[in-house]
Specification:
8 strands; 6 helices; globular; alpha/beta; Rossmann fold; 8-stranded mixed β-sheet
């Protein structure tokens, strides 16, 4: 398959983070994966590309080259991370930093929107666009990470973008969001969640279009629609 991964990190990074592990496994299985990152990891891999998420012209320039290089795209997976403002209690009642707000939304929403629109002609019936969301985006009364606004807020905005694309699509492209249960501090749980997620990305069909799919405990097969529970 031809895959665009936004936020795969470095191919040389330590195993144990989803983006990096997905990248390495997918490539090892013979898929072509163009890995887009906002950092230059200097891997030397021909399919590792760098994009400045805050420069629309640069994003379009890179996407134009990808469009020529990969005429048909089977999967686009958004797994990027970045600024998450505001996040700390001290930031909530101080004068807000508008640039940090802009950066948060650019990385989470504006850049993915521009990437999709720039590569839309390369997406065909049967192509899949997935957004890695978070149940934090829908847990307004949570008792953990209570000062976090930017991360769940941006995830929620991105999820709304994908859900609207699903309902307004002009081609039979599947748009969906995943809320995984990645407990990195519990390697055995994480490993199981990784494989559930990896398999879902490749095997899900158009019945998932416009769905927010969640893992309840890392063992849900397949992802469960509409059931939100944040793992601690």
């Amino acid at each position: 398959m031809n895959i665009i991964l936004v936020g795969g990190g470095s191919t040389n990074a330590t195993i144990g983070r989803f983006g990096n592990q997905f990248l390495n496994k997918a490539r090892s299985e013979g898929n072509r994966v163009i890995n887009i990152s906002h950092k230059n990891h200097n891997t030397g891999h021909v399919d590792d590309r760098v994009i400045d998420y805050h420069n629309a012209d640069k994003i379009k320039e890179v996407c134009e080259k990808i469009s020529i290089d990969m005429p048909i795209i089977d999967i686009v997976l958004f797994n990027q991370t970045g600024d998450a403002f505001p996040h700390e209690e001290t930031e909530l009642f101080a004068e807000p930093d508008f640039q940090k707000y802009y950066r948060t939304m650019n990385i989470a929403v504006a850049a993915p929107h521009l990437i999709i629109s720039s590569l839309y002609k390369n997406l065909v019936d049967g192509s899949k666009v997935l957004n890695m969301s978070s149940t934090m985006a829908f847990s307004y009364e949570r008792d953990n990470y209570i000062s976090a606004v930017g991360y769940p807020g941006a995830k929620g905005y991105a999820t709304h973008l994908i859900m609207s694309m699903a309902r307004c699509r002009t081609k039979k492209i599947t748009f969906s969001s995943l809320c995984p249960y990645f407990l990195y501090h519990k390697p055995e749980w994480y490993e199981n969640s990784f494989h559930v997620t990896y398999d879902h990305i490749f095997k899900h069909d158009d019945s998932c279009n416009g769905k927010i799919l969640c893992q309840l405990d890392g063992n849900a097969r397949p992802y469960v629609e509409g059931q939100v529970r944040y793992g601690r």
